[in-house]
Structures are given as C-alpha cells and as structure tokens.
Amino acid sequence: MRVIIQNVINASVSIDNKIVGKISRGFCLFVGFTDGDDENIVSKMVNKIIGLRLFNDENGKTNLSLKDIDGEILSISQFTLYGSVKDGRRPAFVNAMRPEKASHLYNYFNDCLKDSEFHIEKGGFGADMKVSLVNDGPFTMILDSEELFK
C-alpha cells in the first residue's frame, strides 16, 4: 500500500465537472494498493497517518498532528502509484491491485479514517477525477507499507 500525503490549505475533487469532495486545512491522501495488501496493512497505515506530526507549531517545527489542527482529509484512490516506467516509456500497471479487491480496501481505508473521527471527503473509485489542491509548504510525504510494516 502506498499513500502520498500532502498538507493542504484546501483541496477538492470533481467528477464530470461536479465537486464531489472538498476540504479545508488537512491532508489530501492519494492511495494505491498492490497484491498482498489486506485489511491489517490498511489499519496499520491509517494508524500511522492519523498519528503523524506533519503540521508546523508556533515555532515552525513539524510537531502538530491532524487532530491538533482539527484537520480534514480528502482521500483519492490512485492505482497509478503502482505504475512502472522501468521498461520503455509507457507506464505499466501490473503491480496495481485488481480493481475488485482494491475497491474493497479503499472503502475499508476510508471507513477506518471515519472511525478515527476525522471529517473525510473522497473521490470516486475508478473515476476520471480532477483534483485541485493548495499544498502548504509544499509538504509531501510518501508512505509505503513495504518500508513501514514488512
């Protein structure tokens, strides 16, 4: 499982020119799955994300968590996080989890985030989405379950 976290001042996602999710200050999360990912890995990733201290305190140090700033989350499914351009110039997505399984894990991921009592907005799984955001910093982190939990 891979998650790109961007600290945002605001973010939104549109499908067919209609905004389906919008947040103010918080995290915009781009989420991808690969074979071998399961609910256990998703739960660990959620716990990691909600505990991270990625926001600046009054001294400009990254000491504040999402909860500390009363932040919100915009969750975007993105299978392209497992794309590869190792061979050739056109990306291959053979390492991305099949949509039937990935859809279940993406829904589980969002349910776990909701259970953590954060305001959650999300895009549409498998949809052609337009994501707009103002990255604060810019500040972007890449989380990979292969690095974190295995």
Features:
single chain, 150 residues, alpha/beta, two-stranded antiparallel sheet, 3 helices, 23% helix
Low-confidence stretches: none
Strand content: 35-45%
Number of E-type strands? 8
**pLDDT average, as an integer?**
96
The helix content is 10-25%
SSE topology string: EEEHEEEHEEH
Outline, from the CA principal axes?
A: globular
Largest sheet: 6 strands, mixed
For the record, give the distance between the C-alpha atoms at the N and C termini, rounded to a whole number.
11 Å
Number of helices: 3
Integer-rounded radius of gyration: 15 Å
Pairing-aware structural class of the strands and helices? alpha/beta
Structural commentary:
- The chain is built from three helices and eight strands, in the order βββαβββαββα.
- With 150 residues, the chain is α/β, with parallel strands linked by helices.
- The termini are close together.
- The model has no long low-confidence stretch (mean pLDDT 96).
Give the topology, please:
Layout: E1 2-15, E2 18-23, E3 26-32, H1 39-51, E4 53-56, E5 62-65, E6 72-77, H2 99-115, E7 119-122, E8 129-144, H3 145-149
Parallel strand pairs: 3-6, 6-7
Antiparallel strand pairs: 1-2, 1-3, 1-8, 4-5
Helix pairs in contact: 1-2
Put the structure in a nutshell.
23% of the residues lie in helices and 41% in strands. The protein is an alpha/beta fold and 150 residues long.
